[in-house]
C-alpha cells in the first residue's frame, strides 16, 4: 500500500486482435496510457483524440468515452494502462501551483514526453516495482509521473459532482459476479428501493441498466487484458451460461467477444443502441 488512502496501482496490458469501436466505456479511475502498437481514437464531447504507436495520453474517470482500437497488421493493437487515484492528481497539481486545471475532464495527449518520463512510466508499470518501495517513495514516483504528463499538456480536469450512478457502478465493479439486486443496492446506500429508483431516474438511468453495463465493461476489460477462457469471463461477470453472456456482449458492443481477442470477424462499428454521432465524428 502507498498508504491507507492510495493503494498501489496495477497496470493493465490491453490487447485486441480485431478492430472495433466501443461506446460508453467508463473508467472508475483516471488512466495514464501508452499506445504500444496500432492506433487508439478516444472521443468525448464531440472531440476526438488520436494516439498512434508510442504516444502517451490521459483518460479521465467517470466520463462515458467512445474508444476505437485499430490493430496494425501483423501485430495486435496493444496499450499499456496505469490507473492512478484521482487524489494523487489533485495533490500533485496543488503542489505545482501554476498548473491550469480544465473545468471538465476530457481525454488528452501528452505531447513530446521526455525519455526520462517515458522511462518512469515504464518503471511504474512493471509488476512489483512500486510495491517493493516504501509507501512515501512509491507515492512520490507516481506524483513525479503525473507532473511530467502535466508539463506535456496532459492535465486531468476537475472532478464533477459525484453521481449516484458512479457510486453504484463502483460498488458493482468490486464484485461483478455477485447476484446484485435493487434491494441490496438500496440498503448499501441507506435508502429505500423507491428512493434509489427515483434518484437514478433523475440521472436518466436505472439499476438494471447500470448493472448490465458495468458487467459488460468489466467483461471487455477481462477479454482485452487476460487469457481467461470465455466461459470463465462469463462467470466473472455473473453469467452461468457462456452463450447467454456472448449474446449480451454482442447486444451491448455489436461484436462477438472472440472478435475482440482474435479479430476473425468482419469489423463492425458497435454500440448500435447509442446515437451514432460519435461514429460520424470519428470518420471525418
Short key terms for the protein model shown above:
single chain, 284 residues, alpha+beta, 5-stranded antiparallel β-sheet, disordered C terminus
Tell me about this structure:
The chain is an alpha+beta fold and 284 residues long. 41% of the residues lie in helices and 17% in strands. The chain has eleven helices and nine strands. The chain has helices at 86-96, 115-125, 135-151, 164-173, 182-188, 193-202, 207-225, 230-236, 242-253, 257-262, 277-283, and strands spanning 12-16, 20-25, 31-37, 39-44, 47-51, 56-59, 65-70, 77-83, 108-110. The strands form two sheets. A five-stranded antiparallel beta sheet has the order 1-8-3-6-9. The protein has a four-stranded antiparallel beta sheet with strand order 2-7-4-5, with helices on one face. It starts with 11 loop residues before the first strand and ends with a helix. Mean pLDDT is 89; it is low at 264-284.
What is the topology?
Elements: E1 12-16, E2 20-25, E3 31-37, E4 39-44, E5 47-51, E6 56-59, E7 65-70, E8 77-83, H1 86-96, E9 108-110, H2 115-125, H3 135-151, H4 164-173, H5 182-188, H6 193-202, H7 207-225, H8 230-236, H9 242-253, H10 257-262, H11 277-283
Antiparallel strand pairs: 1-8, 2-7, 3-6, 3-8, 4-5, 4-7, 6-9
Helix pairs in contact: 1-3, 2-3, 4-7, 5-6
Amino acid at each position: 500500500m502507498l498508504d491507507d488512502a492510495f493503494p498501489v496501482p496495477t497496470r493493465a496490458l490491453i490487447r485486441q486482435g480485431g478492430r472495433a469501436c466501443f461506446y460508453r466505456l467508463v473508467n472508475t479511475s483516471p488512466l495514464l496510457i501508452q499506445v504500444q502498437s496500432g492506433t487508439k481514437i478516444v472521443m468525448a464531447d464531440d472531440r476526438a483524440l488520436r494516439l498512434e504507436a508510442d504516444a502517451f495520453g490521459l483518460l479521465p474517470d467517470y466520463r462515458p468515452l467512445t474508444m476505437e482500437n485499430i490493430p496494425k497488421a501483423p501485430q495486435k493493437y496493444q496499450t499499456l494502462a496505469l490507473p492512478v487515484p484521482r487524489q494523487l492528481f489533485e495533490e500533485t497539481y496543488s503542489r505545482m501551483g501554476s498548473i491550469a486545471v480544465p473545468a471538465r475532464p476530457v481525454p488528452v495527449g501528452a505531447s513530446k514526453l521526455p525519455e526520462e518520463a517515458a522511462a518512469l512510466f515504464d518503471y511504474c508499470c512493471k509488476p512489483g516495482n512500486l510495491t517493493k518501495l516504501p509507501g512515501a517513495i512509491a507515492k512520490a514516483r507516481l506524483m513525479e509521473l503525473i507532473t511530467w504528463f502535466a508539463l506535456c499538456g496532459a492535465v486531468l480536469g476537475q472532478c464533477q459532482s459525484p453521481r449516484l450512478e458512479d457510486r453504484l457502478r463502483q460498488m458493482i465493479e468490486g464484485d461483478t459476479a455477485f447476484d446484485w439486486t435493487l434491494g441490496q443496492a438500496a440498503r448499501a446506500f441507506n435508502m429505500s428501493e423507491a428512493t434509489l429508483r427515483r434518484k437514478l431516474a433523475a440521472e436518466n438511468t436505472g439499476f438494471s441498466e447500470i448493472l448490465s453495463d458495468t458487467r459488460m465493461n468489466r467483461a471487455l476489460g477481462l477479454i482485452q487484458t487476460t487469457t481467461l477462457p470465455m466461459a470463465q469471463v462469463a462467470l466473472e461477470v455473473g453469467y452461468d451460461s457462456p452463450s447467454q453472456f456472448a449474446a449480451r456482449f454482442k447486444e451491448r458492443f455489436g461484436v462477438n467477444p472472440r472478435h475482440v481477442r482474435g479479430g476473425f470477424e468482419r469489423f463492425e462499428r458497435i454500440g448500435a443502441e447509442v446515437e451514432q454521432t460519435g461514429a460520424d465524428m470519428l470518420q471525418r
